[in-house]
Design brief:
By secondary structure, the chain is of the alpha/beta class. The protein has helices at residues 6-14, 24-36, 92-104, 126-134, 180-193, 235-245, 267-278, 293-298, 325-342, and strands at 40-43, 49-53, 60-66, 77-78, 82-84, 111-117, 140-144, 151-156, 158-167, 208-216, 220-229, 250-257, 260-261, 284-288, 305-308, 322-324. The chain folds into 2 domains: 6-156 and 260-348, Aminopeptidase (3-Layer(aba) Sandwich); 158-257, Alpha-Beta Plaits (2-Layer Sandwich).
Length: 349
């Protein structure tokens, strides 16, 4: 078995650029690394990479992280205390911790699968969607995202992405007829109001709205808008309001995923919480106002699940993205202890 530490592994991972849609080199590297660590390894037709181990006599537990990063490179490197580079936190660090746990749990009394999926950073979540559509449902799921080594994430807001396009016949700026840019500006005001009385990205129970992109001139204009939505949000009602406000413009739904929320009684949450306590941590629980592959999988898989991974999520996508060696190693220990607990939890069988 390969004796790389998780720090060594992550150091190699962050040196391989893997923006969304360009994960092939990293996927191939990890397929070899997983085999070198004694796991059965393969890749699927969309580029996801998998490693499998265990005795096959108990529950199936899936550890799923993502390979891709935002397309904003920063220098990769390693110091005496941390691994630095794009994806160190979001989310190669959590995936490296999952690989470390799978390596150490090859006697798992069931089937243990670690997965690195593609295109999580895109609206389509292509990798997780393919797993959801082609894999049998596992008994339990851990999503690898940066929560902090002593924290479990219980849920994420949903997300709705829309595009607005409008065309007007070319005309002189002094013509009193409405211009495309003016119509787009007016539509944005309506789209913001459609989010509700008090839009907020800071609160889990409120809808947040963001104008991601705008471009245009007097004859053509377009907007890209995203909504972060709470549990139970009525997406169809929102789209009806937007289409009514669009006038001669066109509203296109690009992507929609529902919010997800579990609770502290969930077997995966309890296993991770106990493992953090066993590692001398004080367990914390969070709900996040972003989205993850947990949303995608929870829409179909009604199974015990939670999100966990070392790393400070405040550094996601930032120029300071880095993860301490100590936190990475603690994350591996927590995952190993949680897997031992899940192996004996009847509710996940």
């Amino acid at each position: 078995m390969d004796t790389w530490s998780e720090v060594d592994l992550l150091d190699q991972m962050v040196r391989i650029p893997s923006p969304s849609g360009a994960e092939e080199e990293l996927s191939g590297f990890l397929a070899d690394a997983l085999r070198g660590r004694g796991l059965e390894s393969w890749r699927d037709e969309v580029g996801n990479v998998f490693g499998s181990t265990g005795t096959g006599d108990g529950p199936t537990v899936l550890l799923l992280g993502h390979l891709d990063t935002v397309d904003d490179p920063i220098p990769a490197g390693r110091t005496d205390t941390q691994v630095v580079g794009r994806g160190a936190v979001d989310a190669k660090g959590p995936l490296a911790a999952m690989i470390g746990a799978a390596t150490r749990c090859q006697d798992f009394p069931g089937r243990l699968v670690v997965a690195g999926v593609v295109e999580e950073e895109t609206p389509a979540s292509r990798g997780a969607m393919h797993v959801r559509d082609t894999w049998p449902r596992p008994d339990a799921l851990v999503i690898g995202e940066p929560s902090g080594w002593d924290t479990v994430v219980l849920g994420y807001k949903g997300k709705i992405d829309v595009r607005y396009d409008v065309y007007c016949p070319p005309t002189h700026p002094s013509n009193p007829a409405p211009k495309a840019t003016e119509l787009a500006a007016a539509f944005w005001q309506s789209a913001y109001a459609a989010a509700g009385a008090e839009p907020s990205h800071a609160r889990f129970d409120c809808t947040g709205v963001t104008l991601n992109e705008m471009c245009g001139d007097l004859s053509r204009a377009s907007l890209s808008i995203s909504y972060r939505t709470p549990v139970g949000f009525d997406a169809e009602a929102l789209l009806e309001r937007l289409r009514a406000a669009a006038g001669d413009g066109r509203v296109e739904l690009l992507n929609a995923v529902e919010a997800v929320r579990t609770d502290r009684r969930d077997p995966v949450v309890r296993a991770l919480t106990g493992a953090i306590r066993d590692a001398d941590g004080t367990p914390k629980h969070k709900i996040k106002t972003a989205t993850s592959d947990m949303n995608t999988l929870a829409e179909v898989w009604r199974i015990p699940m939670a999100t966990y991974g070392p790393g400070d999520s405040r550094l996601d996508h930032s120029d300071e993205e880095a993860i301490p060696h100590e936190d990475l190693c603690r994350g591996v220990r927590v995952l190993c202890a949680a897997l031992r607990q899940l192996a004996t939890t009847e509710v996940v069988r």
